[in-house]
Amino acid sequence: MPHALIVDDDPNTRQALAEVIREDGLTCVTAGDLREARIQIVRQMPDVVFTDLKLPDGSGVDLFEDLDPTGVEIIVITGHATVESAVNALKNGATDYLVKPINLQRVKAIVNRIPRSGDLKAEIGTLRGELRRMGRFGLMLGNSPAMQTVYDQISRVAPTAASVLLVGESGTGKELAAQTVHELSLRRKHPFVAVNCGAISPNLIESEMFGHERGSFTGADRQHKGYFERANGGTLFLDEITEMPIELQVKLLRVLETGVFMRVGTTKEIETDVRLIAATNRDPEEAVLEGKLRLDLYHRLNVFPLHLPPLRERGKDVELLAQGFLDDLNQRYSTHKTFPPETRDALAAYSWPGNVRELKNYVQRAYIMSGNEAANTAAVPLQISLAKPSPGTSVTIAFGTSLAEADKQLILATLEQCGGVKTRAAEILGISLKTLYNRLVEYGDSAKGDAAGDADNDEKADLDA
């Protein structure tokens, strides 16, 4: 049976918390200051600690060094004016925080997430052993040093409630990393909801995030639950966070700090218990300077930054991943195809600007082009046109050219350099694919010229895949 320790100088707070925790089947002791708390820790190491940050003889953070960081869940308690200190506590090892006045329903949600027999930590330990043997870690695949660093970071942050900011190039597997964090967290029995902020119309994104009431706007013929409501108790993954409108970022920050939101068309507050993971393929600090990401939201999300390495820095993971994708296809279609030696050599020599997504699409093309009866995959060419423009490539903009026209020339030149492949052009330009399409629509069909060419068909096949 898990054991809890409550540390707070307010006896009413201690009593209220103790009653809720005991109702959920935990044993519980209380302390009014650090000295008494340390005595209780010596008597029995707790599985979970609820501690106020401000205590008569110090800070609740001072207890961290007395606790087993791998075996104790630490929940800090703070006032409305000191949320920033709670976030700092998360960075120092706390797993969650509560704001006074304490919401007892949130306490119940936290207690319900506590493993009853150390099963989560045992599973993470098993996964680490599996990593050493097979190069697998939950949903992820790869045994390069770069990926082992990622796995170690995930194993540390997953059991906590800390927000995670995934940063990496497009196609490096950020959503898969987010799913792995969720599967190894205390929320794994609750929903994992993934949202691409760049794929939702700016006019609908608030409704999609927070929901709306019937009749709240034209076309709202029924009540709609938003992503925060659907992800309650679980994890909400916000991909391309820098594509979210700035005015909505303000509302997102409020939800993260208060745990409440309102559906569009009502003033009734709804409580939510969601762990947030955000991702971007841009440098987040540059996004802040460009006004694409609010500084306060960036700091709130950046509790635990996690960088996903590009495929070109993962060595033999390329062959491991390619074989994994081919094995999946062989299993799905009851075939036994293999890669010919020349294909393996080409895979190892290529720089993979599209990362894991490009590799997966390549394996699918090679499999399909080989036909049903072939023993080997086809030796289809790699899309060398996706490589980055050479250092000498340039665009000349005449003095006096308007910003809009300069923007247009740069976009069209980049698209042409990429052989009309919009996904690559968008990545080089640092914009979402949706934004690129919108710009091309503004320029008109004639502006696209032959740059789009036949690459559109290949691109759509890649996107569908």
Describe the structure in your own words:
The protein has helices at about 10-25, 35-45, 85-90, 105-110, 120-135, 145-155, 175-185, 205-210, 225-230, 245-260, 285-290, 295-300, 315-335, 340-350, 355-370, 405-415, 420-430, 435-445, 445-450, 455-465; strands spanning about 5, 25-30, 50, 55, 60, 75-80, 95-100, 135, 140, 165, 190-195, 235-240, 260, 270, 275-280, 305. Helix 17 packs across helix 18 (about 435-445). The radius of gyration is 26 Å and the shape is globular. Mean pLDDT is about 85; it is low at about 445-465. A five-stranded parallel β-sheet has the order 2-1-3-6-7, with helices on both faces. Strands 11-12-15-10-16 form a five-stranded parallel β-sheet. The protein has 20 helices and 16 strands. The protein is of the alpha/beta class and about 475 residues long. Strand 1 (about 5), helix 1 and strand 2 form a beta-alpha-beta unit.
Lay out the secondary structure.
Layout: E1 3-7, H1 11-23, E2 27-31, H2 34-43, E3 48-52, E4 54-55, E5 58-59, E6 73-78, H3 83-91, E7 96-99, H4 104-112, H5 119-134, E8 136-137, E9 140-141, H6 145-157, E10 164-167, H7 174-183, E11 192-196, H8 205-210, H9 227-230, E12 235-239, H10 246-258, E13 260-262, E14 269-271, E15 275-280, H11 284-289, H12 295-301, E16 304-307, H13 317-333, H14 341-349, H15 355-369, H16 403-417, H17 422-429, H18 433-443, H19 445-448, H20 455-464
Parallel strand pairs: 1-2, 1-3, 3-6, 6-7, 10-15, 10-16, 11-12, 12-15
Antiparallel strand pairs: 4-5, 8-9, 13-14
Helix pairs in contact: 1-4, 13-15, 16-17, 17-18
